[in-house]
Amino acid sequence: APPPPKLVAALTAGRFNDSAAVSVPHPQVAMRCGVSSDKVKNVIIWGNHSSTQYPDVHHAKVNVHGSETAAYDAVKDEAWLRGDFISTVQLRGAAVIKARKLSSAMSAAKAICDHMRDIWFGTKEGEFISMGVYAGGNSYGIPEDLIYSFPVQIKNKTWKVFDGLPINDFSRAKMDATAAELVEERDTAMDFLSQ
């Protein structure tokens, strides 16, 4: 029998944060703000682990000189946040492989350790991380029969999608595009398995 959906959780590309730290969302935002990456929280990776994934800073916070502010306000460069920032995160995996001429295995290993640490110890109150989880019952309009990267909170070793974040039109289009890719991949796999 298949495992209950709540027992399934997948790494999100944004967690691959070791050898390519300058290419994942938190360090990129931190560098733009002149702070360390631990001063950035709640950057979301929505969707598929592919070039359609959407790194979203609309709900992220940055601690600058002891004061927490919205990432958009701290970065002060909407063109970068909607352009180069997104494309760099989306194409990160291929860039690591090309630059190193090797897989990003150590980056993946570090991400697995971080993923398990988060499940074991949970997330801080008011904070969330991104994790690929079953989309059933989500409040974001994502098809329910997918594994999709959402913002999640973890308590008592159980994840829960962080529901109710307002989604603007820009984010909605990006979230829907990555969901459409996952639907296509799911349908292709189901067709293959039914033969």
Automatic annotation (TrEMBL):
It comes from Seriola lalandi dorsalis. Signal peptide: none annotated. This is Malate dehydrogenase 1. Pfam families: Ldh_1_C. Residues 28-192 form the Lactate/malate dehydrogenase C-terminal domain. GO terms for molecular function: malate dehydrogenase activity; oxidoreductase activity, acting on the CH-OH group of donors, NAD or NADP as acceptor. InterPro entries: Lactate/malate_DH_C, Lactate_DH/Glyco_Ohase_4_C, Malate_DH_type2. Keywords: Oxidoreductase. Belongs to the LDH/MDH superfamily. MDH type 2 family. The keyword Oxidoreductase applies. Transmembrane segments: none annotated. SUPFAM superfamilies: LDH C-terminal domain-like (SSF56327). GO terms for biological process: malate metabolic process.
